[in-house]
Amino acid sequence: MDVFDVKRMMRKETVYLTDGWDGEDREYLEARCHDYLASWQKQQSVAVDPEVGALAIKQLCDDFSGYGPIRDLLEDQHITEIMINGPHSIFVERNGR
Q: Using 50, 70 and 90 to split pLDDT, how confident is the model at 66?
């Protein structure tokens, strides 16, 4: 399974994964996702590569928290501007350039 497959499978359980989540506590959300993935692997007798699982959980948590794929850009202190012109057209200005 690749990251896309793991995310697609876990998105089907969005209600379960976000149950009790206050919208801010990322550790709670990550723990729910980790627990669900471990349980799913055991039930299905499927092994997901740990790096794939970790990346899928990170991306899901980024998506659930509202900023999705640009979260890392928003947290980078060297980025001074992000311009989004569409889903495949993103420009980033670093240190004012």
A: confident
